[in-house]
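Allow me, if you will, to draw on your knowledge of protein folds for a short while. I am sending you one protein, given as its amino acid sequence and as whole-number tokens for its backbone shapes. Kindly check, if you would, that the fold set down in the tokens agrees with what the sequence suggests. The record follows directly beneath this note:
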Amino acid sequence: MIPIHPVTLDAHSHKTNDSMNSSDNRPDKPEEACGVFGLYAPGEKVAKLTYFGLYALQHRGQESAGIATFEGTQVHLHKDMGLVSQVFNESILDELPGSLAVGHTRYSTTGSSRKANAQPAVVESRLGSLALAHNGNLVNTVQLREELLESKFNLVTSTDSEMIAFAIAEAINAGAEWLEGCIQAFHRCQGAFSLVIGTPDGVMGVRDPNGIRPLVIGTLAGNPVRYVLASETCGLDIIGAEYLRDVEPGELVWITEEGMASYHWSQKPQRKLCIFEMIYFARPDSVMHNESLYSYRMRLGRQLAQESLVDADIVFGVPDSGIPAAIGFSQASGVAYAEGLIKNRYVGRTFIQPTQTMRESGIRMKLNPLKDVLSGKRVIIVDDSIVRGTTSRKLVKTLREAGAIEVHMRISSPPVTHPCFYGIDTDSQDQLIAATKSVEEIAKQLQVDSLAYLSWDGMLKATGEDTNSFCSACFTGDYPVTIPEQVKRSKLILEKVVV
């Protein structure tokens, strides 16, 4: 019998050390789950192409990275904690031969930040190994885990991604072929999942029936044409691949030596792309709905200016995500655009905590004000969102210390009032500042002269799409996939304890 280890269900933060669990160190931005990448390209150095694809998707996760390649039936895997450039080098990539690859860069949401939870998840089946990379979160993890444990699977991580892989293996071991087995497994999964799956026979790209997290298809020139899968189009651009189309909600694409085939495995797909992908998560040079997100975010800023203009000397954005909206605000309002904050672009995610003395002296690892630009000025600062408000308050204090005589904050999205359960790391609802305070109360807490959010109607106008085609539960509480009450009450996170 395969040994089964007991688990505890931890309703607290996914971070595993005390310093990271401190509320002061929790991110004051929504944090994305992961970036996925895959390709089928015989004759190419697939590991190196995947490395560059993950490099372009680094903004989607900075805690761990991994690549699995298939050389016939043999799978080669390397994954570790750290940035893509820290996990891989030339010699490691040379040890990952093959004709197809699956890659992943991770920010932990379900499952703690440790090497065992790095992806791709590789499991064995009757038909050979499969390597799975996952972006998103399942909401039925408790039920699915219990089912897999009853089937005597030895779950070695605390991630829902591994559960999807084992659910596929269970169907395969029961006699199904790859396509049939995968589709059986997907019907057991509830929530958000964009997947890239490598097998000895080919690579799959899959989206859940709502398409909550993105996944695109690209092509590499050659004979025959080779196909690429990535979370965003910037992952295609970096390797010279041409964008073909999105993987549709409820679609599975199967890429083999015969080309690419499409299967619509869900009978009731309904597009619900996460609106925050457009507002904040995806890189501004990525394309969604036939335009760059830079252009879209500028449009949000122009709409914001129409709704909440205030007399000021300069307007600037919080680097980097607030800059396009700030430029749009300037264009629509006539208020001069300037750079008021400089970002240290060489700072990635760090697990080294500053000392108390450094905190007290106002350590500024990521942003530093331009005092000569700000001194004596009435300023408008534009950001994409406020989650807890802690960082925003510190930022306002920094601007005043730099000499700003008025600070007006403008947010290019509506108030975040509900937590996400589909792959975005947000606090429980009582920790979301807009869930417990009015705009006036938030302005007082942040110590700004004025505060305004983009209206719901203004966001829809700027988006130019039917509201029903997006998941906007963080603004409305209207979740497209039902959240079990146990999960909703506790913002449930699976955490495995081996005894």
The longest helix spans residues 293-308. The mean pLDDT is 88. The longest strand covers residues 64-71.
